[in-house]
Write a structure and sequence with these properties.
With 268 residues, this protein is an alpha+beta fold. The chain has helices at residues 4-16, 21-31, 34-50, 58-77, 83-86, 92-105, 117-136, 141-156, 167-177, 182-191, 199-206, 232-245, and strands at 208-215, 221-227, 253-259, 265-266.
Length: 268
């Protein structure tokens, strides 16, 4: 059964896509896919209970979709084309479909383990990508091929360990990095109390109060991070900034971060 948080996030996603019928149909199809739901939940079980990592399950994947939709829409409103549009291979709608599917499936590989989980995610995602694309593009092989390719690139590239080249994959890379608020660390903080190497990720994430994604002043996308303590800067500098620096969309992003009540630090 889906959690209240999942249902609320799904509602927000559908609201953001109310003027995009095809992408709205895609998310409804993915949200109703029972196998995908089971895979997301099991990946989260392995991530939190077996490995002691933050949330990598249904809520996280939906939040990444939310972040990615926001950023892609901002670029579109600023008349900045996606890679598929630049190359005249697809439309903005096609790019959005790829970003949505990548966000919904990028962490499925956590069901197998942390090491190279992005590659495992791409492997596990292929049958779901195929059936989702056949649902929305039943008679268009060209669309299915290009969107499957852009989706797969975004999935395998979300850890910044592999060079990516498309705006679409770059948006997923940043969108993933932006989901680092204290909610992701709540469960692992509660059930994994024995100190161990890597705990800085939980404690730093627990210091992040709020992340906003909006239209920027100097660049199209402005990311602003508010934290409760200086430990949150680890999450910015070692996770989010690393992902932005590896993203083909970096030139479109300005980044600010700071402790509540103090002056923001400008990173980009």
């Amino acid at each position: 059964m889906k959690s209240v948080k999942e249902i609320a996030t799904e509602s927000k996603i559908q609201d953001k896509l109310k003027n995009n019928p095809l992408c709205l149909e895609l998310v409804k199809f993915l949200f109703a896919d029972e196998e995908l739901q089971e895979m997301q939940e099991y990946a989260n079980n392995v991530s939190i209970r077996r490995l002691g990592y933050n949330d990598h399950g249904p809520v996280h994947m939906r939040q990444v979709v939310t972040n990615a939709i926001k950023m892609l829409n901002i670029l579109h409103d600023c008349c900045i084309p996606t890679s598929l549009e630049q190359e005249e291979m697809g439309s903005f709608e096609d790019s959005m479909c790829g970003v949505i599917m990548a966000g919904m499936m990028h962490d499925l590989g956590m069901a197998i383990g942390r090491q190279e989980h992005e590659r495992m995610s791409a492997l596990l995602a292929q049958p779901i990508i195929d059936r989702a694309l056949k649902h929305i593009y039943p008679d268009n092989l060209h669309k299915r091929v290009i969107i499957k390719s852009i989706t797969t690139e975004a999935i395998v590239g979300h850890m910044s360990s592999r060079k990516i080249h498309s705006i679409e994959a770059g948006i997923i890379l940043i969108a993933d990095g932006c989901d680092m608020t204290k909610g992701r660390a709540r469960i692992p903080m509660a059930i994994n109390t024995t100190p161990k190497v890597g705990d800085i990720h939980k404690y730093s994430a627990n210091a992040i109060n709020k992340i906003s994604i909006q239209t920027g002043n100097r660049k199209p996308i402005k990311i602003d991070v508010e934290m409760s303590g200086d430990v949150g800067f680890f999450q910015i500098e070692e996770v989010l900034l690393e992902k932005i620096n590896a993203s083909p969309a970096k030139k479109y992003v300005e980044l600010y971060a700071g402790v509540t009540g103090q002056e923001r630090k400008c990173y980009l």
